[in-house]
């Protein structure tokens, strides 16, 4: 499959930039390799590929690797030494005042910051301003097809069922006083995944009590807590179907191994639920109104709820991440804490919304997936309203 240069050029003109400059050295920019659909091959020297907003693309290649970009359209310039590289870089960019690169000012969006500072300096020295390609990248890396949306829904139906069965198994074992650990439940989920044709690159996360206060806790056979009456149980489960191009479904639910959920746990869940719902409603309302929304704004909406309830210091991760063929996709994240994500939420992308509060004795997170359409956004699966009383 070839690169759709005309489509990229339309997007460049809409973004009011003069071109997209791709650059790589020894595979440091996997985004460039994916977007340009480069086959495997020897590329040990620096190369540049420039797609202008108008006109034919151009290449800049080392003289001993003249075939490095043979599959791409456009005439080539060549270099051997530094001076020749700098001279021909100016020719490559002739007429371009502003170009997009895999760069992020102050590294605020590190997921696209693939080009080193020295190369940015070289481009600027050629008389060209560099802006981030972050929004362009997400259009080509994060947008789903209808088939991918269908795969997400199929994975969601299976995972929602498996999560419900996992909670039921935990309650049954505790009632019957049978031995059960976090690792045992993790293995149960993985067996159910295999039976349902669901795969995942890692996980799931199964955590009780204080282990649920670690957002990336991972039980192992050697390190797994017993599951007992009076425990809070958190399940963070993600997976996708086996078909090529399928995308992930990712949720977190919590249950309590007792007949009545303690007041403190219910109170903390209520704050998390309100933060989650506030973020989801912001996405829904902005998309319905056709108004721009950036990732950091969604994070702020959720974080303000938790801070108002005096739990701000216990919420120490972003509110959500883009979801794609990998669990953490290359689109906008709902993040104003770890980074300042100014990428817009664009149609045909999906994000998790998963605020959490992590106290000393227990942690609570509630996670849903939100799909953004052309003029509507919606949660793609079941939504938890209360902590599940697993012995009720």
Walk me through the topology:
Elements: H1 5-15, E1 19-24, H2 30-35, E2 47-52, E3 58-62, E4 75-79, H3 82-92, E5 98-101, H4 117-125, E6 129-132, H5 134-141, H6 146-175, H7 182-196, E7 198-199, E8 205-208, E9 232-241, E10 249-256, H8 263-289, H9 295-308, E11 322-323, E12 349-353, E13 356-358, E14 363-365, E15 368-372, E16 377-379, E17 388-389
Parallel strand pairs: 1-5, 3-4, 5-6, 10-17
Antiparallel strand pairs: 1-2, 2-3, 7-9, 8-9, 9-10, 11-12, 12-15, 13-14, 15-16
Helix pairs in contact: 6-7, 8-9
Largest sheet: 6 strands, mixed
Mean pLDDT equals 96
- Looking at the overall shape, the CATH architecture of the largest domain is Alpha-Beta Complex
Corresponding CATH superfamily of the largest domain: Creatinase/methionine aminopeptidase superfamily
Helix percent reads 25-40%
């Amino acid at each position: 499959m070839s690169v759709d240069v005309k489509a990229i050029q339309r997007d460049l003109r809409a973004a009011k930039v003069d071109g997209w400059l791709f650059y790589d050295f020894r595979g440091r920019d996997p985004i460039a390799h994916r977007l340009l659909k480069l086959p495997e091959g020897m590329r040990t020297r620096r190369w540049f590929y420039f797609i202008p907003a108008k006109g034919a693309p151009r290449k800049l290649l080392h003289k001993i690797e003249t075939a490095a970009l043979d599959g791409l359209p456009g005439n080539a310039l060549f270099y051997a030494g530094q001076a020749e590289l700098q001279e021909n870089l100016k020719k490559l960019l002739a007429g371009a005042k502003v170009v997009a690169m895999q760069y992020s000012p102050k590294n605020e969006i590190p997921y696209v910051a693939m080009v080193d500072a020295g190369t940015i300096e070289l481009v600027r020295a050629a008389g060209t301003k560099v802006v981030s390609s972050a929004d362009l990248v997400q259009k080509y890396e994060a947008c789903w097809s209808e088939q991918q949306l269908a795969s997400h829904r199929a994975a969601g139906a299976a995972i929602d069922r498996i999560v419900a069965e996992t909670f039921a198994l935990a309650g049954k074992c505790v009632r019957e006083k049978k031995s059960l650990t976090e690792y045992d439940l993790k293995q149960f989920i993985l067996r159910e995944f295999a039976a349902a044709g669901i795969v995942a690159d890692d996980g799931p996360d199964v955590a009780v009590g204080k282990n649920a206060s670690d957002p990336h806790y991972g039980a192992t056979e050697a390190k797994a807590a017993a599951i007992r009456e009076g425990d809070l149980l958190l399940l963070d489960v993600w997976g996708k179907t086996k078909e090529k191009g399928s995308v992930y479904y990712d949720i977190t639910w919590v249950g309590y191994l007792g007949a009545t959920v303690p007041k403190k746990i219910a109170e903390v869940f209520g704050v998390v639920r309100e933060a989650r719902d506030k973020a989801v409603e912001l996405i829904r309302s902005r998309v319905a109104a056709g108004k721009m929304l950036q990732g950091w704004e969604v994070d702020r909406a959720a974080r303000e709820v938790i801070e108002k309830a005096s739990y701000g210091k216990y919420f120490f991760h972003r509110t959500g991440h883009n979801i794609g063929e990998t669990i953490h996709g290359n689109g906008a994240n709902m993040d104003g804490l770890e980074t300042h994500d100014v990428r817009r939420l664009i149609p045909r992308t999906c994000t998790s919304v998963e605020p959490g509060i992590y106290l000393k004795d227990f942690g609570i997170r509630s996670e849903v997936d939100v799909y953004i359409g052309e003029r509507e956004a919606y949660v793609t699966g079941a939504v938890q309203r209360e902590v599940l009383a697993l012995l009720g």
